[in-house]
Amino acid sequence: MIAHALLFGFGCFGAGLLLNLYRLAKGPSIADRVLALDTMVINGISLLILYGISSDAAVYFEAALLFAMVGFISTVAYCRFVLRGDIIE
Amino acid sequence: MDFLIELLISTLIVVGGIFGLVGSFGLAKLPDLMTRLHAPTKATTLGVGAVLIASMAHVLWDEGRLSLHELLITLFLFLTAPITANFIAKLYLHTEPNLAAKLPSATTEYGWANFDPPPRSGDDEPDSLTGPRRGD
């Protein structure tokens, strides 16, 4: 039963990634693209955790934690760069 | 008992998947950025939360130990999601052309945050913290 649920979860988050990719390509403003990238990172974290459940390995949780941190930092850095033209003033 | 735990884990994964898909669908479907901002920041965080709880329950059931990595990820995501949303909303307010002209005039003396200068007082915040003036 868990295997079927995992398959469903992979399908949902994979479709979510495709929808985010559509928004990333279409825009129209730069804020939409930043938001699409941020949501892609969150969907990627979910996929990593589901893969960790299906393969019974603890490594993927560390990877997901790193992914969450890098995603947050990059979103904030991108927003600051567009707003101020500089990241650390 | 095993069946019930499996059912719990499967339900959490399915609910998380549906929430994640709804959030991403809202991002692709909704008409402008302020509505788009609201879909993924709430729904996707709930989706990731459900998947993380499923993962904790799976490790507890499978190996009999309490896994705390997932709580760390959940805490980090719950702390950072509103900050990210705030930054993106600020980006929208400052980069969208003619946004100030579309607003109705404010009824109080304070005006709109980000678009009108704040009222003066002796120990107010410095000028560098105020946003662009309306009409600049």
Give a quick rundown of the structure.
Chain A has about 90 residues and is mainly α.
Query: Could you say which structural class the secondary elements and strand pairing of chain B correspond to?
Result: mainly alpha
The major sheet of chain A is characterized as: none
Helicity range of the residues of chain A?
over 70%
* Amount of beta strand of chain B: under 5%
* Arithmetic mean of pLDDT of chain B: 82
How many separate structural domains of chain A? Answer: 1
With helices defined by DSSP (H or I, 4 residues minimum), what is the helix count of chain B? 4
Beta fraction of chain A = under 5%
How does the major sheet of chain B shape up? none
Structure write-up:
The complex is a heterodimer of chains A (89) and B (136). Chain A has 89 residues and is mainly α. Chain A has one domain. Chain A has three helices and no strands. Chain A has helices at 2-26, 30-55, 59-84. In chain A, helix 1 (2-26) packs antiparallel against helix 2. The longest helix of chain A has 26 residues, at 30-55. With 136 residues, chain B is an all-alpha fold. Chain B folds into two domains: 2-96; 98-136, no CATH class. Chain B starts with a helix and ends in a 34-residue tail after the last helix. The model of chain B has no long low-confidence stretch (mean pLDDT 82). Classes of the chains: A mainly alpha (89), B mainly alpha (136). At the A-B interface, helix 1, helix 2 and helix 3 of A face helix 1, helix 2 and helix 3 of B.
